[in-house]
User: Which sequence fits this backbone?
């Protein structure tokens, strides 16, 4: 009997050591990943460039649920789940706040070719909001926020200096949504 328990303890311990915490996006989902940040305060969805008011960093709370990949060409790709249920902030309210913040950035933008710009993305899924941003240093990004449920919002996007996007935004959104659905919502 004692030998059976020892075997069970060894097997469970081995499995625990081999498993890692669940992640929103798997590194293998994106090509040419140079470095990855998973489930930390730095694992935030990029794409908002200079418009920090719509950055996930201002609305993220522990425990963090996010993935951010730095690619070989210097581009960044990622996704973040924003969950503010502990504060009673619904996904509808959070989305409304983010849209208002993006509107404020639009007023502050300098779309004269020398400064900053922000414009809404079209052809997004229902209830999604997204923007294309550009900063004076030549970085540009696309950033989308969409409700997952009553309390959680999914943010995903990329930022790059290349002419072509580093990922297909729709595909990134699908992968991020699949990842979010696998993860249990945090309790507030």
Assistant:
């Amino acid at each position: 009997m004692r030998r059976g328990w020892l075997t069970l303890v060894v097997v469970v311990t081995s499995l625990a050591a081999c498993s890692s915490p669940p992640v929103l996006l798997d590194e293998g989902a994106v090509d040419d990943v140079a470095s990855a940040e998973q489930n930390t305060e730095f694992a935030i969805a990029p794409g908002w460039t200079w418009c920090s008011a719509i950055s996930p960093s201002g609305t993220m709370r522990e425990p963090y649920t996010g993935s951010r990949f730095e690619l070989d060409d210097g581009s960044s790709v990622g996704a973040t789940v924003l969950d503010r249920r502990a504060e009673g902030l619904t996904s509808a309210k959070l989305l409304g706040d983010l849209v208002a913040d993006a509107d404020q950035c639009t007023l502050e933008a300098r779309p004269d070719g020398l400064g900053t710009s922000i414009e809404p993305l079209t052809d997004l899924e229902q209830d999604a909001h997204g923007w294309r941003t550009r900063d004076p240093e030549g970085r540009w990004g696309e950033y989308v926020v969409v409700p997952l449920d009553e309390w959680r919002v999914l943010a995903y996007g990329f930022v790059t200096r290349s002419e072509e996007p580093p990922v297909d935004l729709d595909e990134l959104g699908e992968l991020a949504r699949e990842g979010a659905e696998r993860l249990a919502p945090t309790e507030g």
